[in-house]
Amino acid sequence: MWRWWAYWPAWSGYAAAAFSLLYGGLGLYWWAGGDGFPFAPIDEDHASASILEGSRVEVVAPVIAAVGLLGAVVALAMTRRARPGHLSTGLVVFGWAMAGGLILVIPDYTLIALLAFAPLLLVFAFTGVPGDQAGVGDILYWHRTNLIIIFVGGLLWAAATLAYRRRVRAACAHCGRRHGADDGLSRQALLRWGRWAVVVACLAPLPYEVTRVAWALGFPLGITPDFLRMMQDTPGMLAAGLGCAVASAAGGVLTHGLVGRWGEVYPRWIWFRAGKRVPPALAVVPASIVSVTIIPAGLMFLWTPELRGTWAIYLPSLFWIAWGVGLGVATVAYHLRRRGVCRRCGLGHVGDDRPDVLRLAQPSGDRERDSAGVGARDGSQGNLH
Question: In DSSP terms, which residues pair with 277 in a beta bridge?
Fold first, then answer.
């Protein structure tokens, strides 16, 4: 079922072109007076917090049309065969600008909220949404759903640009390595970078966690008593904040796995998997998703001036930017340490799959019994330590 994903370097450019062409056409439609402009002024209950929210259609729609149609041309140009070494800087700059804008700048907190409350939304789809809202449609309305589609388009642009750059550099489209080129930072250097990034990723959300726990306990930390009473009188409001704080703290614990041994080899307390390697994707995929969705949620507060008078709401959320960047750096460092030999090009090193690393998770008695046998079975393994 997932075989199609293995060919992402081949189809991502066409997918980015299709996305851009679709939004370019919609931009023309909205400019001509069509309905459904997703950034039009709307009532407060159904407005998003996007930087484009409340825009005038006659100003933004032609820009969407122009950028979308130009993007379709650029994305198709990236799919054409190019001689190695003839990298078009313009295509790369445009591609990364599209990816950054669509992933980080235009969206708001919708994506991280969707991740945090996905289990509840699944339940609400069958039971209905408590309170005055009629259903899930009142939560994922068009202004918000459009931001999710834009985010996915940004991911397509990032994949297309990365595939184009690797192809022109005569690198492996899947791992980015080149024959005869340096493999990059050493495992030790990547581990150092990862540790510093983990420190940032764990410290950045602390102000958010402290304030939300304090509110749940009845302390108006950083807010007025009236504001706290309003939240207490709103069903589920304080519980949602507390739940997010607890989830954030739990995520901080899991983040340590990006630099800890238990993030590479299952520890003994996971008895049914103890001593076996942790699949890198088990850490890379969720950490990557959180890192790229938490950044736009933090950036959103830079252009939300009405929240700046309440520091406990405004300031902790700004630290989400550092949280996302730190988590992203730690995830990349973890991936580079764990990626091993590429199945496509055969480049790379055995890395964490080597037996002497996996044995670190075994009980000490087992390691002592195996120590002599390892050297006898393969005298070259001693060079891997």
Answer: 265
